[in-house]
Structure formats: C-alpha cells, structure tokens
Design a protein that fits this description.
It contains 4 helices and 5 strands. With 125 residues, the protein is α+β, with helices and mostly antiparallel strands. A hairpin with a 4-residue loop joins strand 2 and strand 3.
Length: 125
C-alpha cells in the first residue's frame, strides 16, 4: 500500500529486491529454498448442471477429512507423503467441461489425487 494498492509486477520485483538486500542472498539461493511441487490437470465431460452438482458432492465426500474451500468449486487441502497438497474441482466458465487440478510434492502424488477425485465422480454418475 505504500507504493500502490495492488501487487503488480513492479511491486513484486521491488519486494524480491528488498528481500535480496535484507538477506544478502542471490535470487538463485532464494529460489533454491522454495519447495518444488508438481501440478497435474484433467478435464471431464459431465454434460449437465445436475451432473456437475453430483460431481462436486462426490469430491466433497471423497476428501471429507481435508480442509475445504467452496468459494470457486471445491478445493481440498490435505497432507500426502512428502508434504502438503491440494485438489481443486470445478466447472469451467468457458468450456462445457469439469476441471480437476491437483498440486503435490510429486507428479505421482498429484496424479493419485486426481485418480481419487475422478473415481469418486465416476462412481456417483
């Protein structure tokens, strides 16, 4: 807010430069400290708003023990071997599809989350 009320690319650049100055670390050293995660995506064709509602309910049930956010579809945050992960399920605003997206410490873990979501959706159709 002291510069601009939003975080645009120039503000991001300034924040990174400030962090480099404060810590004395190079950009490559700062980046090396950030954990690497994998993102996997899938698209499902469901066909109707009733099917979308059923798919969302299936994802809610499948990941019932996770921390949920339902502001834009369903996002489940959970722990997997190796760290934290999330899976997001929502109807597309631009295409007649249902999107599944997962992020986890490995591609295999992200794909396993998508498999769980897709299996739960398929079982409920």
């Amino acid at each position: 807010p002291a510069v601009v009320p939003i975080r645009d690319s120039l503000v991001a650049m300034a924040l990174i430069l400030a962090l480099m100055a404060r810590t004395g670390r190079s950009l490559s050293r700062l980046v090396a400290q950030i954990p690497v995660y994998a993102i996997e995506k899938r698209k499902l064709t469901l066909g109707s708003s009733v099917a979308v509602a059923a798919a969302q309910a299936a994802v809610l049930r499948e990941f019932a023990g996770a921390r949920m956010d339902t502001q834009d579809g369903i996002r489940a945050d959970l722990e997997v071997p190796g760290g934290s992960a999330w899976v997001h399920a929502r109807a597309s605003n631009t295409e007649p599809i249902f999107r599944l997206i997962a992020e986890a410490p490995t591609r295999e873990a992200a794909a396993a989350l998508l498999d769980r979501a897709q299996t739960a959706i398929s079982a409920r159709r």
